[in-house]
Design goal:
Largest sheet of chain A: 7 strands, mixed
Number of strands of chain A: 11
Order of helices and strands of chain B: EEEEEEEEEEE
Number of strands of chain B: 11
Oligomer: heterodimer
Order of helices and strands of chain A: EEEEEEEEEEE
Largest sheet of chain B: 6 strands, mixed
Low-confidence stretches of chain A: none
Strand content of chain B: over 45%
Strand content of chain A: over 45%
């Protein structure tokens, strides 16, 4: 149980375009979803926290107009990278959590390359 | 906010030896401390976790200890095997309050290499 999927697993886009990444909890209702970014050989850095039906809470230094997060249902959250630039190239990982749980369940990640 | 420091950044051990990774945290209100193993290009996998009401937890070859007074916690892996080679991350969070989930603050990671 507690399976989280992400789509796509890899995406290459041109500079200036937008890319949408989906995160789904397959067998539980995720009241909270988190989005992380991980650069090579670095740790996971939290970008934002989203609660179903509410606006996302962004961490300091993360541009909310560039990284649009939607958590419209208890099983789906999306991250849209708008006007992507090469420096946005990274590994994006989501995690999901149900109400009252300590543990977060991670998706497999999305490798974004902006050319 | 919470700050988690992790040491060492790299650790090389011989197969069968023990490995210890240490983390410290800054927020005394943190009450949940998971450890993750991440292989290259894969998702972090929870290997063990501990809550602040417990001082030690063990699961086969893996154990975690927590010292709330000193605000540090450690991962111990015994009888290491080559398949234990990976990057290990500690994390800390505060669980409690109403709604909102509990965000994790990660340590900087330890590259563990188990040599034959």
């Amino acid at each position: 149980g507690a399976v989280v999927s992400q789509h796509p697993s890899r995406v290459i886009c041109k500079s200036g375009t937008s890319v949408k990444i989906e995160c789904r909890s397959l067998d539980f209702q995720a009241t909270t979803m988190f989005w992380y970014r991980q650069f090579p050989k670095q740790s996971l850095m939290l970008m934002a926290t989203s609660n179903e039906g509410s606006k996302a809470t962004y961490e300091q230094g993360v541009e909310k107009d560039k990284f649009l997060i939607n958590h419209a249902s208890l099983t789906l959250s999306t991250l849209t990278v708008t006007s992507a630039h090469p420096e946005d190239s990274s590994f994006y990982i989501c995690s999901a959590q149900w109400a009252g749980s300590y543990e977060q369940y991670f998706g497999p990640g999305t490798r974004l390359t902006v050319t | 906010g919470e700050n988690v420091e992790q040491h060492p950044s790299t650790l090389s051990v011989q197969e069968g030896d023990s490995a210890v990774i240490k983390c410290t945290y800054s927020d005394s209100a943190s009450n949940y401390f998971p450890w993750y193993k991440q292989e290259l290009g894969k998702r972090p996998q929870l290997i063990i976790d501990i809550r602040s009401n417990v001082g030690e937890k063990k699961d086969q070859r893996i154990a975690v200890t927590l010292n709330k007074t000193a605000k540090h916690f450690s991962l111990h892996i015994t009888e290491t095997q080559p398949e234990d080679s990976a990057v290990y991350f500690c994390a800390a969070s505060k669980r409690g309050g109403t709604g909102g989930g509990n965000k994790l603050t990660f340590g900087t990671g330890t590259q563990l290499k188990v040599e034959l």
